[in-house]
Amino acid sequence: MLCLVPSFLMAQINTDRVMTIARNALYFEDYVLSIQYFNQVINAKPYLYEPYFYRGMAKFYLDDYQGAEEDCSLAVERNPFVVGAYQVRGLSRIRQNKYDLAIEDYTAALRIDPENVTLWHNLALCHLQKKDYPSAREELGKLLEVAPRYTSAYLMRGEAFLHENDTIAALDDFNRAIELERFEPNGYTARAMVELQQTKYKEAEEDFDQAIRLSVRNASNYINRALARFHQNNLRGAMSDYDLALDIEPGNFIGHYNRGLLRAQVGDDNRAIEDFDFVLQVDPDDMMATFNRGVLRSQTGDYRGAISDFSRVLDVYPNFLAGYYQRAEARKKIGDRRGAEQDEFQIMKAQIDQLNNPSQANNDNQGDVADNDSKGAKTRKQSDKNVENYRKIVIADDSDNQNDYASAVRGRVQDRNVQIKPEPLFALTYYERQSEVKRNVHYHHYIDELNHNKLLADELLISNQEAPLTVSQVNRHFADIDKLSAEIAEGQADAILQFSRGLDFYLVQDLDNAEADFTKAIAIDDQFFPAYFMRALVRYKQLEYRKAQASAAPRQLNEEGNPVEAVGTADYEFVKRDLDKVIELAPDFVYAYYNRGSLQITLGNYRAALEDYNYVLDRRPDFAEAYYNRGLTHIFLGNNRLGVSDLSKAGELGEVEAYNVIKRFSTNDE
Question: At CB < 8 A and 24+ separation, what contacts does 18-26 make?
Answer without folding.
Answer: 18/44, 19/50, 19/51, 21/508, 21/509, 21/510, 21/511, 22/51, 22/54, 22/509, 23/54, 24/509, 24/510, 24/511, 24/545, 25/508, 25/509, 26/54, 26/57, 26/58
